[in-house]
Amino acid sequence: VTTRTVTGSAAKPASPFAKFKQLDRQNSQQSAKSPTTPTTPGGGSTASPTSGKQPIFRFTDPALNAKAATVKEQLLQWCQSKTQEYENIEITNFSTSWNNGLAFCALIHHFLPDAFDYSQLTPKNRRKNFELAFTVADEKAGIAPLLDVEDMVVMQRPDWKCVFVYVQSIYRRFRNCQ
């Protein structure tokens, strides 16, 4: 559990939103120090693709860049490529494909295979899957838990934008890993 110290009161757990704001501040500070062209989370330039400059978003795998037209499609294909060997995973979108937690677990397990035994997970145990994925991502990879387990358990159709942002943070952490 992450805590923050407040002068004159007891430490309180930092909310996922507070962690997101902290991550955003850190990214802003890093980009402010760099005199280069602003970049997207994938490292590509924000310059227009039609201006003859770098594309808006670039993956480290050139095959993914050639196949996908949009950032959303590129990230979806990246997720598919990292989870294709996992059982019970069919990632076709950033909403219902993630609603039982297994896609998050598979994606995290791909990069941290010793963190847990993926074969012991089931689609029916949604709460455990979300808790496991978010906890391992936070504790072992430093990925802030931007999604709330309770919210994810309640929703059969998670908000794709929320899932997309969290998956982007996973991508940013592991983009240079196989």
TrEMBL record:
Keywords: Coiled coil, Phosphoprotein. The keyword Phosphoprotein applies. Residues 9-20, 28-53 have a biased composition (Low complexity). Pfam families: CH. Signal peptide: none annotated. Residues 69-175 form the Calponin-homology (CH) domain. Residues 1-54 are annotated as: Disordered. The keyword Secreted does not apply. PANTHER family: CALPONIN HOMOLOGY DOMAIN-CONTAINING PROTEIN DDB_G0272472-RELATED, CALPONIN-HOMOLOGY (CH) DOMAIN-CONTAINING PROTEIN. Belongs to the smoothelin family. This is Calponin-homology (CH) domain-containing protein. It comes from Lucilia cuprina.
